[in-house]
TrEMBL record, chain A:
It is a multi-pass membrane protein. Signal peptide: none annotated. GO terms for biological process: amino acid transport. This is Amino acid ABC transporter membrane protein 1, PAAT family. The chain crosses the membrane at residues 20-41, 144-163, 183-205. PROSITE patterns: ABC_TM1. The keyword Nucleus does not apply. It is found in: Cell inner membrane; Cell membrane. It comes from Neomesorhizobium albiziae. Belongs to the binding-protein-dependent transport system permease family. HisMQ subfamily.
From TrEMBL, chain B:
This is Amino acid ABC transporter ATP-binding protein, PAAT family. Signal peptide: none annotated. SMART domains: AAA (SM00382). It comes from Neomesorhizobium albiziae. Belongs to the ABC transporter superfamily. Residues 9-243 form the ABC transporter domain. The keyword Secreted does not apply. Keywords: ATP-binding, Nucleotide-binding, Transport.
Amino acid sequence: MSLLDIWLGILQGLGTTAKVTGYGLIFAVPFALIFGVAQYLTTGVTRFFITAVIEFWRSSAVIILLFVFYYALPIVGVTLSAMTVSAMVLGLNAGGYASQAVRAGLQALERGQKEAGMALGLSRPAILVLIELPQALVAMSPTFINQIMQLVKATALVSLVTLTDMTFRAKEIAQTEYKPVMIYTSLLLAFFVVCYPIALLGRWVEARVKPGRGSPHGV
Amino acid sequence: MQDLPKTAVQIRTLNKWYGAFHVLKNIDLHVQRGSRVVVCGPSGSGKSTLIRCINGLEAYQDGAILLGGTMLGSQAKATALARRQTGMVFQGFNLFPHLTVLSNCTLALRRVLGKSRKEAEDLALHHLRKVKIPEQAHKYPAQLSGGQQQRVAIARAMCLSPRVMLFDEPTSALDPEMIKEVLDVMIGLAQDGMTMLCVTHEMGFAREVADQVVFMDEGRIIEQASPKAFFGGAVHPRARMFLETILH
């Protein structure tokens, strides 16, 4: 089996890797936004419960969550497909991290921004949507790009719940070909080929949003 | 049209605490419509806190504030009303850095007053011309000098046609050579008959424009006089000391 065959073999798993990442984002993005904003706006008991949910997804080991949701839940009658479990677990884990970036971005804004909005008579939701979030999300965009790349790489774990992703394909080929160095190096490269464009996209996004940024005191 | 009440702002025995710290003590202040009141005093005297109470940026525990005869409570509705009637200019400008100068000015016109884009932009450009900066309308705040940013902030506040303009040390964050351009705009507003309440250390401005100078120390108003009387011979020793330090 030539190097090209190995490559093509591994890339057969690309669809699954992409799917897990894509569905994962469907869980991650709303979770990060809703919980990050909620943690920023709430206090007391409400904030405690919101923090508890974030910490559950952020502080648990992904591999254990995968096993629990895929192998243990059916015992209590809840059966989810491997794709659903993978997207949900990886997505909410990444969303947990990203929610902290959302919150940090909001907290890092100058208090004067909110006050200026209040003085102009804007409602609290309007201040959040029109003034705070646009600035916070732009400031945090490098962190979000990091999170997406982490999510892509985390998909290497889904082979443990039967999905045929790139890692699973590599393992399959390794079993028949017995060329572990060549095969796993190819897998490494395959992940790089997927992740590097995301990094480039991130730089492009950052460069594009820059003109509107800068300190309001920029004299 | 309904006659506007003669008193624009009326503050009655206002008291405010930050925890155990009594920051405003029995403040009584009347601002007549069309008058200019300058509030000065050493830092920590409560002057910024006082004007921030007027538009509800700070809550207070005791006393009353009436805006154009309407009592302000702690209810959201009353606060919203107060913010519709007042415009505020901050020490740090607080322009929205992600929006152009024009969008900074049109944001509240469109989202609070529900004006169309065209209507809002026309109004914004009118006020940007008044602060002599219409050519910067499509730039972002970070591309402007401090003085220009503060003039935009004044235009932004004026767009909502406030009955009272509140200034919280509008020139304190500026380089010396930019102070004049901002003060000139403020003098222009005063000449147009705007009711103004300014916290400032610009005594030249106070002398030229104010009808009334209020001197605060340790949360109290300890002297309240015409600029002539205040600068000619402040009664309170603390005020005299302050003037000596600031005028030399």
